Amino acid sequence: MTTTASPTATPTPFVDPARWPDVARVPDVPLRAAAAARLLRRAASRRGLRVELPGGRLLRPAPPGAPVLRLHHPRDFLHRVGESGLIGFGESYQAGDWDSPDLVALLTALATAPETLVPGAARWLRRFYVQRPPDEELSTAANARRNVGRHYDLSNELFALFLDPTMSYSSALFPTGPADARIPADAPLPGHAPQPGRAQLPGRALLATHDGLPAAQHRKIDRLLDLARVGPGTRLLEIGTGWGELALRAAARGAHVVTLTLSEQQLALARHRIAAAGQTDRAEVRLCDYRAAEGRYDAVVSVEMIEAVGRPFWPNYFATLDRVLAPGGRVALQAITMPHDRMLASSRTYTWILKYIFPGGLVPSVRAIEETAARHTRLRLTRADTYGPHYAETLRLWRERFTERSPQVAALGFDEVFRRMWELYLAHSEAGFRTGYLDLHQLLLTRDEDRP
Predict the structure, then answer these.
(1) How far is CA 183 from its chain centroid?
(2) Distance of CA 358 to CAs 167, 213, 307, 355, Å?
(3) HEC string for 205-248
């Protein structure tokens, strides 16, 4: 049954087959497309979606204010999804097969309890379209630099278009009201469980604005540095430089910083920023894999880098932390996380995000971090504070700025398929944090023998 909807124009981005071979190719899989059509009807019914078809029709009646999936090319959409599931769903957006006036609202609806979208009796069909990550994207020492380069070496100018002036590409921590003050990292936050409990932020609205983003990024950095007890004379190792803001912040405290990156563009800009700040005597940037880290440090800090390590290499990562940490030292990590059961279910699945955005990675669970550290090192997880809503707001601000500056993105040489890919990536990530499918943690690891 169909009803009438408002007609819409069909976007037709040019898809360069040399640059985007799997986006340019439309598969022909009629039986799988028919199965995808049934799943679409189920999703529309269960999630209350408004699915708009060409010619002003609706797939089914929808409640007012329902999230909108606007299909411009239904046949192509269904065959792509039928062939490769969520990878096809993403590629069909890149190709312009579908759109939404509120992409985050749609993806949030779809990301809520995603396991319920496919009937239990049909889940065995996943084996026909779910792919395994390719070996050439495994984050070995030989592959890691290439994986990093595919994302972080796109263009410093691209990232500068949507990040704030601190060039921080990780979640900020926003204030929750005018009385919010800087909170010592070793003190339980209001409403939080005491150490070593799992802390949860109070349910107050976040004051997240573009103007306030630099201060919110500094609040995040300062809290991590406080957690690691970084101060004058601290020997600090940072794994994952970004564009150098944490190293600058630590050097300004009087710490001696060595920071590691595999991105040549980040290396160049971080060194430039450190030199411009007059901190070259306190902060050194090295092009170096974490596995090759040298020296002994009073503190190790790593911000949203563990997601790129890959599950097979988590033992190596934590062994490195343990090896370079001096007696009495502390490790402070900021990590995107997901529930343990979902992590296990997705750990051998090749996703659209892995294919196009972050090759070789896997978002860990807090349990996996805790168990891996305990099994392979002397490090123990002693504090875990959660800030998922802050990442949803950070991503919203990035997405808004990226969308507003689409002409500047195009002027840098990035085509419309790329722009749509990044809009979907940012919206998909925001939806993940809004539903709780993803979370954000700041974690403290110490050694048993170092505790009083």
Answers:
(1) 26
(2) 19, 24, 9, 7
(3) CCCCCCCCHHHHHHHHHHHHHHHCCCCCCCEEEEECCCCCHHHH
Burial level of 451, CB count in 10 A (0-12/13-18/19+)? exposed
From the list 344, 384, 348, the residue with the least C-alpha distance to 364 is: 344
In 3D, which of 198, 186, 184 has the Cα closest to residue 330? 186
| Phi, psi values for residue 321, rounded to 5° | -55, -45
Nearest Cα neighbor of 236 from 253, 219, 223 is 253
Predicted TM-score (pTM) of the model is 0.91
| CA atoms 40, 42, 43, 45: torsion sign | positive
**CB count, 10 Å around CB of 429?**
22
H-run or E-run covering 332:
strand 325-337
For residue 161 the two structure tokens come to 């278009």
The Cα 341–Cα 339 span in angstroms is 6
Q: b vs e for 103-126, b when ≥16 Cβ sit within 10 Å of the residue's Cβ?
A: bbbbbbbbbbeeeeebeeeeeeee
Tens of pLDDT along the chain (452 residues) come to: 455 554 455 567 999 999 999 999 999 999 999 999 999 999 999 899 999 999 989 999 999 999 999 999 999 999 999 999 999 999 999 999 999 999 999 999 998 866 666 655 444 455 555 678 888 999 999 999 999 999 999 999 999 999 999 999 999 999 986 544 333 444 433 333 333 333 444 456 899 999 999 999 999 999 999 999 999 999 999 999 999 999 999 999 999 999 999 999 999 999 999 999 999 999 999 999 999 999 999 999 999 999 999 999 999 999 999 999 999 999 999 999 999 999 998 888 999 999 999 999 999 999 999 999 999 999 999 999 999 999 999 999 999 999 999 999 999 999 999 999 999 999 999 999 999 999 999 999 999 876 65
Class of the domain covering 137-450: alpha beta
Q: Which residue has the tokens 């978002």?
A: 363
Q: Which residues contact 226 (CB under 8 A, 6 or more apart)?
A: 184, 185, 186
d(CA 341, CA 442): 20
β partners of residue 67: none
Q: Can you tell me the distance from the alpha carbon of 133 to that of 316, in angstroms, rounded to the nearest whole number?
A: 20
Domain map of the chain by residue range?
A: 3-130, 137-450
> What letter represents residue 34's amino acid?
A
* 12 alpha carbon, distance to own chain's centre: 28
d(CA 304, CA 387): 13
